[in-house]
Amino acid sequence: MSQELILPKRLLMGPGPSDVHPHVLKAMATPLLGHLDPTFLNIMNETMELIRYVYETKNQVTIAMSGTGSAGMETVFVNMIEPGDKVIIGVNGLFGQRMVDVAERAGAEVIQVQAEWGRIIDPADIEKALKNYSPVKAVAVVHAETSTGANQPLEEIAKLAKEYDALMIVDAVTSLGGTKVGVDKIGIDAVYSGTQKCLSAPPGLSPVSLSDKAVEILKSRKTKVQSWYLDLSMIQAYWGQERFYHHTAPISMIYALHEALRLIKEEGLEATFKRHEQNGRALQAGIEAMGFELFAQEGYRLPMLTSVNIPDGADDMKVRHLLLERYGLEIGGGLGPTKNKIWRVGLMGYSSQRSNVIQFLTALESILSELKVKINEGEAVKVAENYLNNHE
Predict the structure, then answer these.
(1) I need a labelling partner for 177 at 20 to 30 A (CA). Which of 142, 192, 275, 337 fits?
(2) Does residue 8 have a cis peptide bond before it, meaning omega lies within 30 degrees of 0?
């Protein structure tokens, strides 16, 4: 006979999911309402307003798609792209590559603008592609490349997209709630995220927002959206005034997202960003003080996800296994060309706490010392604490 689930206690400090706030877990235990119940529809309305708050947008079509961040990616591309459309995609990591795959499946002619993993996309390279392949339907980039820890500036690329009358598409899966996205100010036309990173809810929904320009493109499509399930022309009718049934909403997940966003608003958006910035930079200062090199391009490193080159003599899997076994602490390894070469350490949402910075550095130093890996012992925690004390 099956036993009730009894799970080990974990501290999630990988590239996602992050630890879920206790209030969010409590919200998920709330009894279900029908997906057309007036009270639930009001919760949906409040959730839309809260998504607009974190995205910093007034976009009417701002909703939570059923599915993870990858469903958000697919939602944007299948709704915005028709067969034969030219799309420029910045590729400097795994999720840029995934964008290419999804766009090609939607029938796009994809022009890749590539950069080395860990480095940002150069706007000059985007402009060159816009000139060479005009007219272009859309320009797409990953804001926070989860596979490398690189933080892609958006302003210049968004200006170029507008200049060439192309849509600006942004992957904000890891950035939303941890650093400024600023949809309206920057001029982003289509953006998607996920709930399991800096929003500190379980995976299962993808906040998506479309500008008026993007909505007009959706309305003027010559072909049907290839995915019935992700067709925004129908789904927005359920989230909008019509309340036309499309599919049964993941009710408990919407409770969770509502509470997660409410907590961010309660803390304040700028205060949330500051918390992520301080903890992330303290972690990075501590890692460097230990004698290690950070992987992502200097000056363009994410605060909520730190990538670090694995030091000589350290076994990737063994170190991560010991962190999990002894301390219940999860971090991520590298992907693709960075496999066995980097660690990825997350401080996202509820996981972004001062105590977690210190706990991770202490645990890592202990394990590496035991494994006879050369480090600067006793420096990491001291440097991180000094940074935090000086930036309160």
Answers:
(1) 337
(2) no
Q: Which helix (H) or strand (E) holds 232?
A: helix 232-239
pLDDT digits (tens), the chain, 392 positions: 788 888 999 999 999 999 999 999 999 999 999 999 999 999 999 999 999 999 999 999 999 999 999 999 999 999 999 999 999 999 999 999 999 999 999 999 999 999 999 999 999 999 999 999 999 999 999 999 999 999 999 999 999 999 999 999 999 999 999 999 999 999 999 999 999 999 999 999 999 999 999 999 999 999 999 999 999 999 999 998 888 889 999 999 999 999 999 999 999 999 999 999 999 999 999 999 999 999 999 999 999 999 999 999 999 999 999 999 999 999 999 999 999 999 999 999 999 999 999 999 999 999 999 999 999 999 999 999 999 999 87
Closest CA to 103 of 88, 120, 125: 88
φ, ψ at 220 (rounded to 5°): -100, 15
CA distance 120 to 56: 24
Q: How far apart are CA 200 and CA 213, in angstroms?
A: 31
- Distance in angstroms between the alpha carbons of the first and the last residue of the chain: 52
Largest CA distance in the chain: 65
Q: How many other C-beta atoms can be found within 10 angstroms of the C-beta atom of residue 145?
A: 33
